[in-house]
């Protein structure tokens, strides 16, 4: 029977921990390495509700994208929800493994899965990671993806394509920029991405798809893009390309875009475990909306 140690070894071959950002601590969070693994559940966030559903389904292992212990903690007692989740997992013999920024950067990981679903071709990482083992297999590792659409389309049509392939959330998808402008090249960074505007601008893409865009960084980025487009229209070469505004912005719900990874993980993980151990565990996805917002109200404008 496949042990948790064997399953973890497979997970950390597919999504190497060395790919993780310095501040990140992915990997095995809860579990007995000698315990058997026969059923794996996948979910974006290890919330209490998700953990309860994994236990109810008889999962031996819960694989999540987001960490349970994102920031430093000093206790996992019954005085807090994290301690309660750890207790629930141990009492029900369910391990928890997290693939966070390491899964973001991996082949067929979070970034590639999203870019593939949006229809991008000729892809490369936005922020490459040098990895000889990946290169030997013909793969590229790194955060985010940069690619192009098979043909140009209006920005609004592309933003609607993004919204259509994402799981439903009440937050929805926001677009920023000229809706009729034709776009073809796209950068995608699932998760919080306003720290990488410089890298996106250097890539020269038409659109940037990410999450958690804050007011000031997003405003600064689109205003700079509009300014450069005006200057190029006047024959003053600032930036590169023609007089279009770029990059335009698409802001997505954080967990929704990252959960596209499970389209690949549900296939890749059981297959790799079977190749390593001769036994294929059952695998299923918990399609629970873990976005924190459950109501969006458009202001009426009465306060103008």
UniProtKB/TrEMBL annotation:
Residues binding a divalent metal cation are 65-66, 104
This entry carries the following GO cellular component terms, namely: cytoplasm
- Alphabetical UniProt keywords: Metal-binding
An MF annotation (GO) of this entry = metal ion binding
The cross-references to NCBIfam families, in alphabetical order and at most eight, read: YbgI_SA1388
- Write out the similarity annotation: Belongs to the GTP cyclohydrolase I type 2/NIF3 family.
Query: Self-association or partners: how does it assemble?
Result: Homohexamer.
The identity of this protein, by name, is GTP cyclohydrolase 1 type 2 homolog
Instruction: Record the organism.
Output: Bifidobacterium scardovii
């Amino acid at each position: 029977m496949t042990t948790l140690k064997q399953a973890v070894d497979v997970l950390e071959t597919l999504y190497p921990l060395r790919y993780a950002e310095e501040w990140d601590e992915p990997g095995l969070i809860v579990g007995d390495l000698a315990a058997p693994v026969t059923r794996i559940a996948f979910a974006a966030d290890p919330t209490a509700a998700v953990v309860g559903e994994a236990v109810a389904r008889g999962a031996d292992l819960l694989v999540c994208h987001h960490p349970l212990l994102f920031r430093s903690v000093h206790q996992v007692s019954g005085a807090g929800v994290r301690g309660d989740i750890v207790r629930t997992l141990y009492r029900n013999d369910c391990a928890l493994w997290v693939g966070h920024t390491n899964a973001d950067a991996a082949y067929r990981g979070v970034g590639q899965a999203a870019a593939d679903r949006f229809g991008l071709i000729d892809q490369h990482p936005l922020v490459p990671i040098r990895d000889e083992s990946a290169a030997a297999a013909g793969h590229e590792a790194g955060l985010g993806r940069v690619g192009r659409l098979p043909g140009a389309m209006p920005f609004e049509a592309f933003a609607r394509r993004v919204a259509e392939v994402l799981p439903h959330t009440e937050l929805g998808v926001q677009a920023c920029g000229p809706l009729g402008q034709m776009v073809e090249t796209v950068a995608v960074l699932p998760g919080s991405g306003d720290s990488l505007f410089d890298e996106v601008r250097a890539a020269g893409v038409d659109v940037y798809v990410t999450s958690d865009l804050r007011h000031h960084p997003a405003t600064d980025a689109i205003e700079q893009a509009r300014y450069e487009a005006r200057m190029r229209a006047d024959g003053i070469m600032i930036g590169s390309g023609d007089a279009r505004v770029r990059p335009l912005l698409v802001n997505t719900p954080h967990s929704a875009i990252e959960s596209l990874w499970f389209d690949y993980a549900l296939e890749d993980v059981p297959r790799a475990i079977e190749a390593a151990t001769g036994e294929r565990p059952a695998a299923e996805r918990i399609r629970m909306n873990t976005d924190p917002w459950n109501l969006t109200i458009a202001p009426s404008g009465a306060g103008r």
